[in-house]
Design goal:
CATH superfamily of the largest domain: Gamma-glutamyl cyclotransferase-like
Oligomer: single chain
Order of helices and strands: HHEHEEHEE
Number of domains: 2
Largest sheet: 5 strands, mixed
Strand content: 25-35%
Shape: elongated
Structural class: alpha+beta
Low-confidence stretches: 1-5, 170-178
Strand order of the largest sheet: 2-3-1-5-4
Number of helices: 4
CATH architecture of the largest domain: Roll
Length: about 180
């Protein structure tokens, strides 16, 4: 009698035999729902990352080269990099290839966070990249040339010349004037 009352049945059959759910069905359904959401998230996360990288690095909507900057000259360019561009995956994302970076040292400078500053007797280690004019334009975009950084000529410890990106004066940045 107690079993019939508990299941609401008078025939002595269990609820799942009369079309209800077996005792483990509800936890199993919850586990399947969780698995479905997890798989969906795992599939969408790389797409979201790819979209964010496209938006920040390649999209025509996030950077307009300031009009006061001269056009990029043709020919190969040497660029001294000392931060994230030292890493091959970042270079591949920014300008489409890993390249053949050469170790280099910029003497009489020191790193200050995302910038370099003159400092007699100090040195900044980095790499030199040989890039085309198109690749230099993509590097300019990545560094937000004219907005966040300027491109300056530097002399490396071996006497060679290269471009380097240096932060613009904070007072000259548009955000600082607001």
């Amino acid at each position: 009698m107690l079993a019939e009352h508990r299941h609401g049945l008078k025939s002595g059959r269990t609820a799942w035999q009369d079309g209800g759910y077996p005792p483990l069905a509800i936890p199993l359904r919850s586990a399947m729902r969780l698995l479905r959401w997890s798989v969906t998230l795992l599939l969408l996360a790389p797409l979201a990352l790819a979209g964010w990288l496209w938006w920040t690095l390649l999209s025509p909507f996030t950077y307009d080269r300031p009009e006061h900057l001269p056009p990029v000259e043709t020919g190969p360019h040497a660029v001294f990099v000392y931060g994230t561009l030292r890493h091959a995956p970042v270079r591949w994302l920014v300008y489409g290839r890993v390249g053949d970076p050469q170790p280099a040292v910029l003497e009489d400078f020191r790193r200050e966070g995302l910038d370099i500053a003159e400092a007699p007797g100090k040195a900044v280690e980095g790499v030199v990249l040989e890039v085309s004019a198109r690749e230099l334009a993509r590097l300019d975009r990545y560094e937000r040339l004219g907005i966040r950084y300027e491109r300056v000529r530097v002399t490396l410890s071996d006497g060679s010349q290269a471009w380097a990106y240096q932060r613009l004066d904070r007072a000259a940045e548009p955000e600082a004037q607001l």
